[in-house]
Amino acid sequence: MSPARPLVTLEAASRAYGPRVLLGQVSLGVAAGDRIGIVGRNGAGKTTLLEVLAGRGRLDSGRATRARDLSLGYLPQAEKLSGTVREVVFGTLPEHEWAADARGRSVIAALLPGIDPGPDVGRLSGGERRRVALAALLLRSYDLLLLDEPTNHLDIDAIRWLAGYLREHGRAFVVVTHDRWFLDEVTERTWEIADGDVYAYEGGYSAYVLARAERARIAEATDARRRNLMRKELAWLRRGPPARTSKPKFRVEAAAALIAGEPPPRDSVELSRLATARLGKTVIDLDDVSVLAGERRLLGHVTWQLGPGERVGVAGVNGSGKSTLLHLLAGTLPAALTASGRVVRGKTVRIGHLTQEPVPVDPGLRVLEAAEQVRGLVRLGSREMPAGQLLDRLGLRGERQWAPVAELSGGERRRLQLMLVLLGEPNVLLLDEPTNDLDIETLTELEDLLDGWPGSVVVVSHDRYFLERVSDHVVGLLGGNLAYLPGGVDEYLERRERERTGAPRAAARPAAPGAGAAARQRAAQKELARLERQLDRVSGQEAELTAALAEHASDYARLIELGARLRAVQDEKAYLEDRWLALAEEL
Question: Fewest 10 Å CB contacts: which of 8, 50, 191, 532?
Fold first, then answer.
């Protein structure tokens, strides 16, 4: 097989901002067909690397080479657009041509629902402009796409659509995103930027987590806390639903060895006991509650209870009423909305509400001073830590804690806002898009903090990975109704698909006569469980035979017999592992 055509190559590329080196003598390349995800802390240089690949960023030294006649599409985080929506998206292409193209119709339906093509883009909101820029990029043919946070302002449905679109159309791309589910779905290689270097890993996000954990284990890295967080996340990936664990292409025993003895992320029984002690039996009850915005119904006759220690994720399209639900729970419903029904809050409930709107903080205060004005020492479950330590864990480290609030970036302000909510030591957390502007490392730290937090949590997020990671079950806002979703985000997306296509609720994908999708899934899950029990059995036999070989090292005849049995057991184990991976991939 001939090697793939090189598209962009960097040789000894360096770029610095003042004393801070973002790229230090970096050499790498992107070839035709590559699907690469870039991860790293905020400020590590992800956007800088993308700009250099796109030819929009200069190098202090080194060289960037692009293939002759390369067509390159670039989605920056802030694109300047001019003209009407129709002009930006379709250019001079007549309407009848793009309307006749199935790909064009798919892009418009997924990214621009409800957006009028006539007005000037300057009149649109930031999220709408972002969708217009992404639609314009996808409708054109490029050899290479460079995408900087393409999932921003997209809901769960649109993110899933975008993942499928990128997989199906086969173009090379490099993507910067903090959406870990998206990375796992679309990428085949991962670049991690850290301290001016770029480290390459095979596979998507899950495989990257495994490789980092393995590298830390072999090297016996000194940063124990960060290593433990990686092991904890890997344990969740390995033990989670098959739909997640089937993505990484690593062998079962490799992951099992790394998480041996690793407890579940949360001690649900203990946290529930502590939450009940703090909250009592009643937390927040909704009884036949409806909310109207003028004539438009956001919530209709909702009856629902939030229990002590319950962790709920909320899924829904943009504008479906998710933020309204949180305001209703918090008792801060805007005056423009009218509500009916009954909302009961427990006497001991103390709510912490992270909204999407910034909370006013004295801009003259330094970050640490703003935090310590609320509380200098915070207790999170059984742990107690100073405000400065919590700031450090949420990504505001060192000198940034002494920076004036007025000088903070948007992402740093979001961290401070989250910090102030946690410092209030609430026993009910309402989090509205908490992942906005947070890098993957900070998201992992936040997940770890929430793991030990004893209280009730309601999370609204389009970050599917985060939503599944921190919640115990998911509810969906569908047509003003709050629906319990035993199947999680997958079930939510299936219901949305049925709404779009008008398929009846019982409709299923083509299957063997008499078998429905749910029955097939249950059968596959039972088979997976059976295979895992068999793997445990043969792994035990393998260990016993290995020990017996060492014990009878001087008995030649016995060694032959034991060796033959060991090879048979290892062959059976390899078959079972391959069968497990194949079956998990189907789910």
Answer: 532
